Amino acid sequence: MKNISLRILPPLGLVLFAGSGLFYLLGGCGSSAADPQKAQAVSTSDARIPVKTAAVTQQSITLPIHASGILTSSAEQRLSFKIGGIIRKIYVDEGDVVRPGQLMAVLDKTEIDAQVNQAQQSLQKTERDLARVQGLYSDSSATLELLQNASTGREVAKETARIAAFNQQYAEIRATKGGKIIKKLMNEGEITGPGTPVFVLFETGKDDWVVKISVSDRDWARLNTGMPAQVGMDAYPETVFKGKVSDLAPAADPANGLYPVEIRITPQGKRFAPGLFAQVDITPPQSRAYSIVPIEAIVEGDGMKAFVFALQPDGEQVRKVPVQVAFINGNQVIIAQGLEGIGEVITAGAPYLTAQSKVRKE
Length: 362
Fold this sequence. Notes:
The chain is α+β, with helices and mostly antiparallel strands and 362 residues long.
């Protein structure tokens, strides 16, 4: 608000400057001092900011959960090598259909073959040592302890050879089930580590489609398996797919602090493909009381956080109150928390206020 300055001129009258405008207040012939109360009233400007307020209403609302995710399948498999090494050959590509047991990729087996040979040679040596100690023990030339140590060494070498042979077997990737390769993550000549995915296999013959979303801890606590959900997809904008909550993660994802949730849906005659973008709406049956204020009362909104101004008990001072926005419904804002014990908030004039402002209620 612009400050108004008054300049009092004796007999000629009063001149009021307001911004760039010049207004004359004609006075009487006598001196202005003849009416001291009037002069005092004119010379004092009201610096308070005019505001309007609105009541904070309470309403019991069932708050919906909105989330987005990617269409995938619970039958999806990520295939990898058990051991690390250099990928020597890849026999399939993205889009190929594979049958159970089909060879898909192999590592360069130079290192693992050497480990297997080394383990077998070690096993043969321990068997010779055991036979020698058994002969000496039968002639009473070796102690029982030496015999037991030789026997244990032979068993350790046998297990080492078995481990090496097992790893040699899994230096290749074979399809565990029939399906389609929807993604090839590595190429020939690259070095891969144990368990690093090389292929993503989508099992064919099943309509086991799910949408994977992530929700906050507050929303996760309101969900239960079996709750109905509505799913929309950009690929089919005119179709609303029916779904239900099929899985709730027991722990949050360390990467983002959100809880993964799976929504199982059926194609309803549409053609699905992994990776389709989906939007999920879930309305839990629980309801709770929320505060509702006009949208004009919100200042400094940042995501779900915002501020409102409320009057102090004296009716002139204000205080800035942080609130958490649940959602916006038309010209109303649903407040999840922050307005406890506050009966009204400032609407008109709120954007011009600070914590030090003085106001007058119109």
